[in-house]
Model the fold of this input.
Amino acid sequence: MLFRQSLFQSVVERLSDEDIDPTAKESPAVSHRIHGMPGNYLADSLTTEPQEATRLQQAYLFLMEDGPLEEPAAPAPPQAQAPVTPAHLVRLSLEEIAEDLGIAPTDDRERLAERRRQFAKLNHPDRIHADFRERATKRMKIANLLIDEAIRRLP
Done:
């Protein structure tokens, strides 16, 4: 470090002394090639004959244990079976639905609401096959009517 110079100034001066002529360096020649790749991969595929590619593929398949994979057979279409009517959907009379609900004279509002939820869990039309939704809807209408009537009669 020279007297009366900062460390930075002395480093700049030393670097400028080392690099006397910055234009004297040779600039690299501009090339259209990519310098990072060791070879041309496209040229091999263009010069390979189709017979050569077939021979290479056959040699590869020969080394495989099972050989080439075969196309899987299309699955058989599922046979449409007629849905079986659930036993509880056959019971459509007012008395049968009241029996299924199990409404007792001692039930309060909370117990009646719980019975409605339990009945809907088993009989709601959205949970039933499309062929039986009409019956399920009828059962739900009657059950809601019976529960609403029981709630009206509460003190």
User: Anything to note?
Assistant: Residues 55 and 61 are 10 Å apart (CA to CA).
